[in-house]
Amino acid sequence: MKGVALFGVPGAGKGTQSQLLIKKYDYIYIATGDMLRKEIKEQTPLGKVADEVISKGELLGDDIIIKMIAKRLDNHTEGTFLFDGFPRTIAQAHALEQLLIDRGGELMLFIKLELSLEESMTRLLHRAKTSGRSDDNRKIIELRFKEYQHKTAPVSDYFKEKGLYHSVKGLGTVDAVFGELCTIIDNR
Ligand code: AP5
Ligand code: MG
């Protein structure tokens, strides 16, 4: 059981690239944001909490997220997981490593999509016209960026120290970014 984590600021292109990666490499896709939005749609107890937190641009508590991931991992006995939007805190980074070790696996790659906040904001405001996401508006996007800078950005340093860190320029066509990601994955 192996893992690849795709990382980056809100709007960096994680979801877009994930769709291409899961097709090419047959990864098992775990996107915490998508999982939470499904809970919201189904109006589950977790969905009610998620709705409130997401619409404020904040992160959910680590315990909730880690439990959700553990449950998903236990649906599989083998394969490679692609994580989109997880881990997002140092506590989640520790948990991910441990969850994979406990299942006889390991994190293989941690790849950051590099994009400026200006470009991310432009992309997200454009997406806001059609996404219907409660967190796609300028005020909340700015709060998401703040959460990212305080809690999430340190995660990349953590994986740099572990020697798992790679980065790709997120600016460019979807295909060009995908090509760079494939090069990193194929060289691993
Ligand atoms: P989540 O759903 O993970 O959102 P996010 O990280 O803020 O990022 P986005 O999904 O907005 O952007 P993306 O990087 O996927 O970019 P995309 O491909 O869509 O999380 C939402 C919330 O859930 C969090 O704020 C938090 O509350 C909660 N949450 C989730 N995970 C959590 C966790 N682990 N812990 C705690 N809380 C958690 O692209 C963006 C736009 O750009 C699209 O319109 C796309 O078409 C366009 N685009 C993509 N690539 C290109 C390109 N190359 N050129 C031009 N446009 C492009
Ligand atoms: Mg996404």
Descriptive report:
With 188 residues, the chain is α/β, with parallel strands linked by helices. The chain has one domain (2-178): 3-Layer(aba) Sandwich (Rossmann fold). It is built from 9 helices and 5 strands. The chain has helices spanning 14-25, 32-41, 45-54, 62-73, 90-102, 117-131, 138-152, 154-161, 174-187; strands at 2-7, 28-31, 80-84, 106-114, 165-169. It has a 5-stranded parallel β-sheet with strand order 2-3-1-4-5, sandwiched between helices. 33% of the residues are buried. The mean pLDDT is 98. Residues 8, 10-16, 32-33, 36, 53-54, 58-60, 65, 85-86, 88, 92, 123, 127, 135, 144, 172-174, 177 line the site of BIS(adenosine)-5'-pentaphosphate.
Compact description:
The chain is α/β, with parallel strands linked by helices and 188 residues long. Helices cover 58% and strands 15% of the residues.
Defining key terms:
alpha/beta, binds BIS(adenosine)-5'-pentaphosphate, 58% helix, Rossmann fold, five-stranded parallel sheet, binds magnesium ion, 5 strands, 188 residues
Weakly predicted, low-confidence segments: none
Helix and strand string, N-terminal first? EHEHHHEHEHHHEH
Shape: globular
Quickly count the helices. 9
Query: What name is given to the CATH topology?
Result: Rossmann fold
Helicity, as a percent range: 55-70%
Molecules bound to protein: BIS(adenosine)-5'-pentaphosphate, magnesium ion
- Order of strands across the main sheet: 2-3-1-4-5
Task: Give the CATH superfamily.
Answer: P-loop containing nucleotide triphosphate hydrolases
Q: At the first level of CATH, what is the class?
A: Alpha Beta
